[in-house]
Amino acid sequence: MIAESSSVMHSWCIQADWNAPTIVGGEGARFWDESGHTYIDMSSLAECMNLGHQHPRLIRAIQEQAQSLCFVNSSWGAAPRAALAEQLLAVAGFAGGRVFFTLGGADANEHAVKFARQASARPLGKIIARDRSYHGASYATMALSGDSRTRNQNEEAFGVLRVPPPYAYRCPFGSASDAECAERNVAHIGSVIEQAGARNVAAVLMEPNAGTNGIIAPDGFWPALREQCHQHDVYLIADEVMSGFGRCGEWFAWQEHGDAGRPDLMTLAKGLTGAHIPLGAVVLAKHVADKLEHQMLNTGLTYCGHPLACAAGVAAIATYRDENLIERSRQLGARMLQRLRVMQEHHAVIGDVRAAKGLFAIVELVKDRNTREPLAPWPTAHPSMARFVTMGRERGVSFAVRGNLIILAPPLVIGENEFERALDTMNALLRELDWT
How many other CB atoms are found less than 10 A from the CB of residue 90? Predict the structure, then answer.
């Protein structure tokens, strides 16, 4: 088999340092390499394989669609495109809204910003985004992202105003509780809007919950942010690329708060097709879509609403529903949090455990639990983090880490024995490795 390292450019790494096995197959929560070594997937690879690897229902839907129509551009209608849009509006409760399909999460976020500016009649309107966030790796979304990997971007050129994150464990406002951190954070966002002038701000773009930067917002943050945006007549864009489709125990993370958390636009990708085929989307609420109904939409993508991808999306939504995976995510997520709390009691290196109400959790490692001194300065990593990943793979478990964080986001279809074995492996590695 041809070695990829000599021909392919790989993301987020020094090319000369890249070295990884070639993956040749997968099923459910497992995948395997060309030597036959199998791995339990504890991160859904890029937090996207919510339905596991090679889900037969999605494979069948793609095959059947390929037999009838592989491609037609968006100047023509396509049945799977229309069906998926209707189903997304239904599960989101966005009756009367519209859906614009993209190729992935980054271009979904770029288009959400474009639509918010056009619908608000603020073509140069500022976009408020936060530190410790990630919205994509295009130039515009790198400027929107407050990620260590996307620094040194010209935020001013893209009209971005940056605010601190609702990071309760290390609250930038010195809060004494999660609730106080949420309150102060939202108040600060309100002050930023007022300083800029509300008529000069088009939208606030933020992740409602899960993110690989390790931030899971306190419970009261998102509804308070929704109210702040409403008061200032500023659109709220929910980046649900990672947090959507059961990852946080609801179809979309904002739904945990009911109508009090309802955004004006939301962006989707990853779990939209369970990563079986690339697809993203912007979902616009009716009051936003109505503003654009009689305006020229000056945008387009050749593969916008690709029939194969949309057929996979229709099958994915049916699978989440028919296999009761949203509820299963909540149930297994509660068990995972319970296991992690027990680990925290036994391993002093665990400073904080943060979890969504589904299969997503962050374990933050520290040098000193009392002072909360990081294991290494963010976003650098302690040497044992690399050993944690390597030894996990050797024992048949694939873990994702970032800086001082262990990110746990297994497929929603993971078997209970696989789930317990992976957590047992994590517990053993925390005990065996040197964290000094």
Answer: 12
